[in-house]
Amino acid sequence: MSPTPLQAFSGIARATPEHTKRANTTKNGEQMTGAQALVRSLEDLGVQDVFGIPGGAILPVYDAISEDTKFRFVLMRHEQAAGHAAEGYALATGRVGVCIVTSGPGATNVITAIADANMDSVPMVVITGQVGADAIGTDAFQEADIVGATYPVVKHSYLVTDAQDIPRVLTEAFHIAGSGRPGPVVVDLTKTAQNGVMQYTWPQRMILPGYNPTTKPHGRVLGEAARMFQRSYRPVLYVGGGAMRSDAGEEIKALADLTGAPIVTTLPARGIVADSDPKVLGMLGMHGTVAATGAVQRCDLLVAIGTRFDDRVTGKLEAFAPGARVVHIDIDPAEIGKNREVDVPIVGDVKTVLNALIPEIERLHDESGTPNLTTWWKLIDEWRQNYPVTYDEPDDGTLAPQWVVEQLSQQADPNAIWVSGVGQHQMWATQLLKFEHPHSWISSGGLGTMGYGLPAAIGAAVGSQRCFDGKRPVWLIDGDGSSQMTSEELAVAFLEGLPVKIALLNNSVYGMVRQCQTLFYDKHYSATILHEEEKTHLVGVPDFVKLAEAYGCEAIRVTTKEEAEKAIEYANSVNDHPVLIDFRVWKDAMVFPMVPAGESNDNVIYKPGVRPLQRVAGLSSDASDEADAADNANASANAAQANE
């Protein structure tokens, strides 16, 4: 078994103090400690906001942070939350998020946020304290091999033992985090490096000989992809978070308008093209719309753009888009062909690739005309008309959580940034909110981290103040289960003066797990009931209104539609402090449509007993039959032209 990075490091001969001193005096520049150099490097890199929590092994760095420091430091209450806040900041602003935590438990606490950022390709630099170089490998107090522990879930990591390396390492870390496929980078900073004396110079020269992300596509594959569009009569643009990271919304819309292809998105890509655009079918997959999922299942060309064929999208992989040829565009070559065989692989930055692909398609259109997609859109519009997202009304006098989300969407500022926790509320939010701008939706996608919502909203609110003069209000839609994992961060929202508006959909259960127990486990609600009022005779455990007020926040409890509408209107008017609205909602509300885990997307359940994509005894809808007939006719015409 290979040694971990710290185990390997412990076998390396240590530099003598005389050698270190000679090394430091050989460089020109301003003399300072490594801790001071780290703060100066962040300033010179243009960092304006940092999240974190101090501790013994990182204390020299915190000692170097003063009132004169150029970046704002936001003191969080838990290291995981510091990481999520950096994520929310990065997604709201497009900048690299930064957090600074200590060694041992401080560093291990932030691993969840690192893994989350890695799954969702979020640019983030995590600086962790580490024991002195001589103590590494001795099981010193609060020693943990954070480089080794995070190795599977980071884009890159550094163990820094020499103060002189700090400016270069920070320069490289920010470049790696924000370029290519974005991701988290860990800089593990020993106390030896923090306390060491060095000579500071700027700018720094990076040493990254093996890091050269491919951004420009090869011309040959562009031509092949353009010809695929020319031969397709049922194309679909399947758009993922990579397109959002590339800021390619305008290019996605241009490609859809040019080719006539519908747009379906993954959860992180919601809003990349405005929902009001008729070509946007919404999210596909486990809780996607019937139109989006059906279009992918029946397409003949699937153009995957900045996405990775996640199991929540594909369902049973071998049954996913069974009749489609696949064009896959991604900046990470490791994703292409990883889960689905690809006909045309295109490695490159999404925005760059699409700007090169569109002229190729235009040229073929000028030469041969455009495919007729009338029958294809007739089928899609049939699904869209017959199977819109809908929901049942509660039978216990509580509010329908879906209705609450609709009201939030209708009353909100069109420039609002929406953040969610993880659970049913997350799915209702992505189904029912109307996104009209890219970068308006922040949620934990790949890892599905409960507790993500509040700290990410704090990061987004700091980003809104920094980059948008606070004119993009931040709404958090959270669940009572998810929120209790990081509710201590309410203190941060209050003390930092962040006007986060929190819509808490409180059903006193772990809703998504309860839904699965209802549908697949004979209503055996094992370990999913958070509170039963009839047993405690209390309004809630916790009482979220009292909890929020204990942290200095304003809070409102609502139980009727009239109260809800007034509370939302009031929250929208508040711009100087956080407001929490405790919506008492139906515990048996369901998220539909739904594809049962591991099943084919053809088995999507629109509502119990209704599976619109299943064919009975080989029969299909009239529109689907017409699409098949049209495809056959078009294919025959193409074959005839080819033989002429």
From TrEMBL:
It is an enzyme of class 2 (transferase). CDD domains: TPP_AHAS, TPP_PYR_POX_like. Residues 617-644 are annotated as: Disordered. SUPFAM superfamilies: DHS-like NAD/FAD-binding domain, Thiamin diphosphate-binding fold (THDP-binding). It comes from the Bacteria. Its cofactor is thiamine diphosphate; Mg(2+). Its EC number is 2.2.1.6. It catalyses: 2 pyruvate + H(+) = (2S)-2-acetolactate + CO2. Keywords: Amino-acid biosynthesis, Branched-chain amino acid biosynthesis, Magnesium, Metal-binding, Thiamine pyrophosphate, Transferase. GO terms for cellular component: acetolactate synthase complex. GO terms for biological process: isoleucine biosynthetic process; L-valine biosynthetic process. Residues 630-644 have a biased composition (Low complexity). Residues 421-583 form the Thiamine pyrophosphate enzyme TPP-binding domain. Binds 1 thiamine pyrophosphate per subunit. Binds 1 Mg(2+) ion per subunit. Gene3D superfamilies: 3.40.50.970, TPP-binding domain. Residues 32-147 form the Thiamine pyrophosphate enzyme N-terminal TPP-binding domain. Pfam families: TPP_enzyme_C, TPP_enzyme_M, TPP_enzyme_N. GO terms for molecular function: acetolactate synthase activity; flavin adenine dinucleotide binding; magnesium ion binding; thiamine pyrophosphate binding. Pathway: Amino-acid biosynthesis; L-valine biosynthesis; L-valine from pyruvate: step 1/4; Amino-acid biosynthesis; L-isoleucine biosynthesis; L-isoleucine from 2-oxobutanoate: step 1/4. Transmembrane segments: none annotated. Residues 224-357 form the Thiamine pyrophosphate enzyme central domain. NCBIfam families: acolac_lg, PRK07789.1. Belongs to the TPP enzyme family. This is Acetolactate synthase. It comes from Bifidobacterium gallicum DSM 20093 = LMG 11596.
